[in-house]
Design a protein that fits this description.
By secondary structure, the protein is an all-alpha fold. Among the domains are: 3-55 and 304-440, no CATH class; 109-164, no CATH class; 459-538, no CATH class. Helix content is 55%, strand content 3%. It is built from 21 helices and 3 strands. The protein has helices at residues 3-13, 51-59, 69-77, 87-94, 109-117, 128-147, 156-164, 166-178, 210-230, 233-250, 256-278, 284-295, 303-325, 331-334, 342-346, 348-351, 358-376, 381-403, 405-414, 419-435, 439-469; strands spanning 498-501, 505-510, 532-537. The protein has a 3-stranded antiparallel beta sheet with strand order 1-2-3, covered by helices on one side. The protein is globular.
Length: 538
């Protein structure tokens, strides 16, 4: 049931006659404690928890300007994504000097060629169609270089850009190699509450640099594919490991967005790995070296931890904002200040009424985040997925039941609960429904990234076997011990990986999120599936 319907039902049946009482007291509307606010310090001047400061304290542990990859990246890319008001605050929190807007920085491909092409000029002797075709030529060249092996001869426009930025590309590789931590601070704009419009702090933070990291990963992939075109396997392997490491470090950020970007970066690295593995020029020693490097990569930060900490804090911070400032604080999740969601207007009485026990709203929210964290910690994926589906159904059932008029009236009359208890329950269900992220999708993305890396490691061991025997094995058991320490379990099926010999090579795959055997088909195949597969043909 849509939230709009839930709101409409309860308002029509129960709260039509409630008197709105906006709280004007200077007293705190919630009790500071683990069961409610989760943290008891640091506190803001108004006495409420400072969740942004708390996260910054947690995330910067053991981080220094010298070991922080984020510092290295900002020095290479410049502050292009930072506004003038944010930049000094941001760099101060990083412990680094303010970076000038204009400087010798890496220029991404699109900006490089946008400047080269300039704006369309009808007097330049070229038609608009020809100009747009020229633009598409560069877009296509870039897409090819990100995903496939290329050379100066095949894509001169990409080569020119690479040459212009080669020193910066090398600086990126050095920064990743020498730095083992990652921290980008969460900083609010001083003008975030302009025009009297209150916005919950934590949920409104910007994440400058996150998408920049993904763009840098693409840059390193382009460079790796150039090395492969030259037959430089060592250069390509170095780039691949650098991308892998950057993905894992980026994923150390506290938010789900940072975690998902880290996973996406890991996927870029795995794509490079497949081309390295398939190269006819790779030696046995290089295969062994790459396998060892992949096995020694730092652990991918857990997505469920982000649910348990940062996403939970977002719920608690937003709840406090709603308690203090009323329904407008929800516009960031359901509408905008200029055009608020009608549901926000509709529940104004409920949100600001004396019938809300905000401690209970906080406690109820913590209960559901605890439950989702518990399910997320289940190691067996099929079991976890079933538990997750059951939990979602339970939450949905509770929410729908809560907003049914007849049920609500019955509860008022028969449950023994007071009206404040019931309305507080309802508010917590609304807030959880609005703010709880899609945990299942996030965990699935994480497991897919880890599984993809493990499939690549098995593929390397298959190549090692072929180098030694001039053939591929009849089964994966032949690899164990000699070519790989142990074979991974398919995270999605709970069984071993699927493997079969073909006329020219092999098919190796894991099930995907649907936990079905799609015969190795991925979403790009004519018969689409979501398996994680490597098809090798010699």
């Amino acid at each position: 049931m849509r939230l709009a319907n839930r709101f409409s039902l309860v308002l029509a049946c129960v709260f039509a006659n409630c008197i709105s009482l906006t709280v004007q007291s200077d007293d705190l509307l919630v009790t500071i404690g683990k069961e409610t606010t989760r943290i008891t310090s640091p506190l803001k001047p108004d006495g409420y928890p400072d969740y942004i400061a708390a996260l910054n304290q947690q995330l910067r542990k053991d981080v220094t300007p010298k070991n922080n990859l984020a510092v290295g990246i900002w020095k290479i890319t410049g502050p292009i994504e930072l506004s003038d008001e944010i930049r000094p605050l941001f760099f101060n929190a990083l412990g680094m000097d303010d970076q000038p807007v204009d400087g010798d920085y890496l220029v991404d491909f699109y900006n490089y060629y946008s400047e080269y092409l300039g704006q369309y000029d009808a007097d330049a002797g070229i038609s608009l169609d020809e100009f747009e075709q020229k633009q598409m030529q560069y877009v296509d060249a870039y897409d090819h270089a990100v995903n496939k092996i290329w050379s100066k001869e095949t894509h001169p426009e990409v080569f020119d850009w690479r040459e212009a930025n080669l020193n910066h590309i090398q600086d990126i590789l050095k920064a990743i190699e020498s730095r083992d931590h990652y921290f980008n601070p969460y900083v609010l704009s001083p003008n975030k509450q302009a025009d009297g419009e209150f916005v919950p702090e934590l949920i409104s933070i910007l994440l400058p640099g996150v998408q920049r990291s993904r763009e840098l990963a693409r840059t390193l992939a382009i460079d790796a594919h150039y090395h492969l075109g030259l037959g430089d396997i060592d250069g390509a392997m170095a780039n691949s490991i650098a991308i892998h490491k950057m993905g894992r470090l980026t994923a150390k950020g506290g938010t789900l967005v940072e975690g998902l970007v880290g996973i996406a970066i890991s996927g870029i690295a795995s794509s490079v790995d497949r081309k390295i593995i398939a190269s006819s020029k790779i030696s046995t020693e290089q295969l062994k070296e790459h396998l060892a490097r992949l096995q020694s990569l730092p652990t991918m930060p857990s997505m469920v931890d982000k649910i348990n900490i940062t996403e939970r804090y977002m719920y608690l911070d937003t709840t406090i904002a709603v308690a203090k400032y009323g329904p407008s604080a929800l516009n960031i999740t359901t509408g905008s200040a200029a055009k608020p969601n009608p549901i926000v207007k509709q529940v104004a009485n409920l949100l600001s009424s004396s019938f809300i026990d905000w401690d209970k709203v906080m406690k109820n929210g913590n209960y559901w985040y605890d439950e989702f964290y518990r399910v997320g910690m289940i190691k067996d994926i099929p079991t976890r997925n079933r538990a997750y589906e059951e939990l979602e159904q339970r939450l949905e059932s509770v929410v729908e039941d809560s907003w049914e008029p007849a049920t609500l009236v019955k509860k008022v009359l028969l449950s023994g609960k007071s009206l404040p208890e019931l309305t507080s329950d309802q508010m917590s269900y609304v807030m959880v429904s609005l703010l709880l992220p899609a945990l299942g999708a996030a965990l699935s993305a994480e497991e897919r990234a880890l599984m993809t890396n493990e499939v690549s490691q098995v593929a390397i061991s298959l190549e090692l076997f072929h180098h030694a025997n001039s053939r591929y094995p009849s089964n994966l058991a032949a690899l164990k011990g000699t070519y790989i320490k142990g074979l991974p379990i398919d995270r999605f099926s709970g069984k071993g990986l699927q493997y079969s010999q073909t006329d020219k090579g092999y098919l190796l795959y894991s099930f995907g999120r649907d936990q079905k055997d799609n015969q190795g088909n991925t979403f790009t195949d004519s018969v689409p599936g979501d398996d994680i597969s490597i098809r090798r043909e010699r």
